[in-house]
């Protein structure tokens, strides 16, 4: 800590990070031990975070991340879109396919940025805000592959007809971006994805990840 920083704010942010890293929540005692502060301090931190809906406590007293965090997260999407658009535009026009940036939203994949090619006579309509289960479609499957550690072979995912009849998808996960789970991909009308599409999507995912760091 330096003279310019707030110890209380730092502790509050550390509480949120600790809660975000667990699926089952944490008790006051567990938070106290992890933070290295007494339980009274933890109670005050949780009470303040609860007032802003950033933390909730269940019947058993375990603290979890609150719904207020989702509201904050939604404000990040415009910034992510702006950072990703150059790479998505290049990807869409290079492949003549609809390109997209997709992020995890709960148990679903959410398209937060979509760019359609400028020179094709027809392409797949795919809109920002489109949601689908993580285990369907290339975008969600690429994210799940990264979670399981299987994203390095071959580094991208190909699917056909999982979200729209006659449409194929290719996607690669975003890697090395702290706090963001997502993928970059394309969707096109074809029965078989051309060989160069997978590696090209991987390159675009790296470009987007670099822009978000």
Automatic annotation (TrEMBL):
UniProt KW keywords: DNA-binding, Transcription, Transcription regulation
Keyword Plastid attached: no
PROSITE patterns xref list: HTH_ICLR, ICLR_ED
A Gene Ontology biological process term: negative regulation of DNA-templated transcription
Domain HTH iclR-type: 6-67
InterPro entries: ArsR-like_HTH (IPR011991), GAF-like_dom_sf (IPR029016), HTH_MetabolicPath_Reg (IPR050707), Tscrpt_reg_IclR_C (IPR014757), Tscrpt_reg_IclR_N (IPR005471), WH-like_DNA-bd_sf (IPR036388), WH_DNA-bd_sf (IPR036390)
Residue intervals of the IclR-ED domain: 68-213
Gene Ontology terms, MF aspect: DNA binding; DNA-binding transcription factor activity
UniProt protein name: IclR family transcriptional regulator
Organism the protein comes from: Streptomyces sparsogenes DSM 40356
